[in-house]
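Protocol step 4 of 5: obtain the predicted structure for the target chain.
Materials: sequence only (see below). No template structures provided, no constraints applied. The aim of this step is simply to have a reference model before the mutagenesis design in step 5. Sequence pasted as it appears in the construct record:
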Amino acid sequence: MTVGLLDDYPNVEVRRSARRKRTVAAQREGDKIIILAPQKITDRELDSIARGLVTRLEKRQSLQRSDDELERRAHELVAQYLGTSLSLLRPDGVSLRWVTNQNSRWGSCTPMEGTIRISHRLQGVPDYVLDAVLLHELIHLIEPGHNENFYRFMHRYSEHERAKAFLEGYLHGQKGRVALVDQEEES
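Step 4 output (structure tokens):
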């Protein structure tokens, strides 16, 4: 029963199901990787497919940035572009973290509470793009609206327009991908 896989990856658990007919999937549950497989797949087939899924899942995990990295970057951006420190900017503290429930915006800031949330969709973007979004939200701690003062701060970041173009292209690509999936489902 996928002895090779389980020997090489002790944090992997295989769950077979008679209801699952064709697909093999991998997901994280805590520190374990769970492989969901059809009951009738051979051990040899499962071992081959599961190794690829585990490798991909681990690679994706290694590319993700942590909340601590996000906070470290916020400290650097505030010092560089706002000329202060995060603790002086918001003495009560700032809560910064990645979230998975923001699919229509890149980030959000609640100035009164000092909370900044950044969409998980930005995990793999270039640093200059993440910096632009993070700086945008940090400026909202000073200036809640999108007024002239807000943009005076934002334009201190020279990569602002480039990052904006990247995000517009990303969204355009996502729309095209959705349209492609819809077309494939119709055929």
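Step 4 remarks: The chain is about 50% helix and 15% strand. Residues 67-177 form a domain with the Zincin-like fold (CATH 3.30.2010.10).
Proceed to step 5.
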